[in-house]
Design brief:
With about 400 residues, the protein is of the alpha/beta class. The protein contains 12 helices and 16 strands. About 30% of the residues lie in helices and about 20% in strands. This is F-box domain-containing protein.
Length: about 400
């Protein structure tokens, strides 16, 4: 880049090289990794600047070229801290383990929709890792077309990361998972695939106990109804010699449940297991199924008070609350039993009259709010807020 540039501007006679390195890195951050490496030929000062780039994005459609380029790049990135792999196929978990172990400074690892050909158990061990996200491809069990073998394997997961702070696991189709040496874990998000729900009670107790021993110290927990159902099965297995679940440090709980088949006792169990819980979010996911049976047998939650409801729970947020009687009972339960509640936020969604309770059908907002406002409250200081669905998008 010469021409019209004084020699004093830069050693190579170019203006860009005279810029501070942080400015150059910012400019290069808008390019793909291949282009960043190519840009190293522009100036002698830029020759190795790609090595110090804080973020590299590699998207090469050809598998062999992708492997060669990534392997070559990582050879020069011996202080790699963050890595995101999307739709990468590993021959086995050993190849992933060897790769992770070769990155001694790796702190953030994201494996999104990656597949493993020859292994059922995926092991991740890294002393430096602090944030791990593991999202498996979701299998549509109703799909009639051809499916690759690696898409149907019920992968298990074994994680041993002593400094891990945050863990996210999505679409795991097996109960073969264990979390070891993870006393530093603060945040856990787990959405198990329902198709893994095929174990006997004893097997369920054993599998869940292995997992809970490694994550019982978390402060924030985000789980789906499959986890709650497993926890409830363990609670009912009074004769089983299994680990008694307890989340004494848990402060924030997020539940994502299908309101068509949610077991009310599962909610009671998780509240009992979390004596110091301060905030809870419930997302009632709609399945689109016919729900007439719920109207014939209303969902009634037992009137009982756990430790967190009596002494610690201050915030309750309910999202996509419908106009069914059993969902209204859920609102009633928290109002009647939350002794120290300070804030309850309710986001409602009105459904087609085909699925709605006739009492609250046709989206009668005033009638819905009026009914809720009549419920008795244990906390005298609670602030009750109603949020319409269109305003919910701006909150999330």
């Amino acid at each position: 880049m010469e021409g019209g540039v004084d020699d004093e501007v830069g050693g190579d006679g170019d203006r860009l090289s005279s810029l501070p390195e942080n400015i150059i890195r910012h400019i290069l951050s808008f390019l793909g990794s291949v282009d960043i490496v190519r840009a190293s030929a522009v100036s002698r000062k830029w020759r190795y600047i790609w090595v110090s780039m804080p973020y590299l994005c590699v998207d090469i459609p050809y598998r062999m070229k992708f492997n060669d380029f990534v392997g070559w790049v990582l050879m020069f990135r011996n202080r790699l801290k963050s890595l995101e792999l999307c739709s990468v196929m590993f021959m086995d978990s050993l190849s992933l383990a060897n790769f992770v172990s070769s990155c001694p400074h790796l702190e953030n690892l994201s494996l999104d929709y990656c597949s493993f050909v020859d292994d059922n158990i995926i092991e991740i061990t890294a002393a430096s890792l602090k944030d791990l996200s593991f999202i498996l491809p979701k299998v549509n069990m109703h799909f009639k077309g051809p499916v690759r073998r690696e898409q149907t394997i019920k992968f298990g997961l074994k994680v041993a990361c002593p400094n891990l702070v945050s863990l996210k696991v999505v679409n795991l189709r097996s109960h073969e998972f264990s979390f070891q040496e993870m006393n530093s874990l603060q945040n856990l998000s787990m959405d198990l695939d329902r198709h893994c729900y095929d174990l006997e009670v004893q097997q369920c107790c054993h599998a869940l106990s292995k997992m809970l021993k490694g994550v019982c110290n978390v402060k924030a927990l985000d789980v789906s109804e499959v986890f709650l159902e497993d926890l409830h099965r363990v609670h009912l297995a009074v004769d089983a010699e299994c680990f008694a679940p307890s989340f004494n440090n848990l402060k924030s709980l997020t539940l994502r449940i299908n309101n068509t088949d949610f077991n009310k006792h599962s909610l009671i169990n998780i509240l009992d297991c979390s004596p110091n819980l301060e905030a809870i979010k419930l997302f009632l996911r709609q399945t689109g199924c016919f729900r007439w049976t719920n109207h014939n047998s209303p969902w009634k939650i037992p009137n009982r008070t756990s430790s967190c409801l009596k002494y610690h729970l201050k915030i309750v947020e309910l999202f996509q609350v419908g106009d069914d009687k059993y969902e209204i009972d859920l609102v009633r339960f928290f109002l009647e039993n939350g002794h120290v509640l300070q804030k309850m936020r309710i986001s409602w969604v009105f459904r087609s009259p085909l699925f709605s309770n006739p009492v609250y059908s046709n989206g009668n907002t005033d009638e819905f709010i009026s009914e809720v406002m009549k419920f008795p409250r244990s906390s005298p200081n609670i602030a009750l807020t109603f949020v319409e669905p269109e305003k919910l998008d701006r909150m999330l």
